[in-house]
Amino acid sequence: MTSSHKIAIIYEASLGEFNPLEIKILFLVLCIIAASALTAQVTISTDSTTPDGSAMLDVQSTDKGFLPPRMTQAQIEAIATPANGLTVFNTTDNKLYIFAETDNQWKEVEYGTGTITPPWSCGNPLAITHTIGDVAPETKTVSYGTVTSSLSGAGKCWITQNLGADQQATSATDATDASAGWYWQFNRKQGYMAGPTPAWTITSIDEDSDWLPAQDPCTIELGAGWRLPTNAEWTNTDANGTWTNYNDAYASVLKLHCSGMMDIIGTLSQRGFWGMYWTSSEHNATDGFFLFFANNTAYTANETKAEGMGIRCIKD
Hints:
The protein has six helices and 22 strands. By secondary structure, the chain is of the alpha+beta class. The chain folds into three domains: 11-59, no CATH class; 70-108; 126-315, no CATH class. It has a four-stranded mixed beta sheet. Helix 2 (73-77) links the parallel strand 5 (70-71) and strand 6. The protein starts with 10 loop residues before the first strand and ends with a strand.
């Protein structure tokens, strides 16, 4: 049965009863449907494909799957007199179960070794393996939290921890290495760990340029589409979030915190007290725009490009 039947019942509100003719039509349609249901095979598809001759129900699609009922184990156990072959997905252990009448038990469907990884989407963890070199200062694998937010003025995907950080910050004033991540000088792809590591060799930058895509650590480390936020995006984020201090920044979905900065000679400073995050926009040849927040303020400003600051990445 590949055609669909639409039945409309019109209730005569003024008379408080059904129209007799409509009742006759409804009865006739129901009889036809009931008769066809006794013998017809059913296809669920988008193109009225004829069902396979061996199937009573044939579900066909090239971009969607079959979704069985999903229940907790307690809900499954509460099903009274389950039919032999009844199938459900157990959300308690994330496994498929079929009821076997002969054993009077729900049987787990054993998984094989084959796996298929679906396309990544924002809101899911983003697993990245960083390799030490001219961008990452160390080799490690990080699982970045991600979130979609329109704080910047448009819906974008953000990582919820600093680039290079092992974890999302645990508080606005989290001063740990694990939450701080790495630091970058403006329009330079080399990241630095506190120490600094690698050796700090650039103490001044004088060039008339925004942060170039080829130098963007977000693009290089996280992949195509990821980039640093612009000054306009950070300014909008601060304004739309109505941030007035570091607690406001941390309370947002971005979970920004005071990771501090590295001065022009590579000395770590203000970690746990200031949040300083580069934008991709320059102010002039020697200064770049950045987001700043502390215990009683939050705004975007400009600072010397030779200083090291944390980075958050955004994806269109």
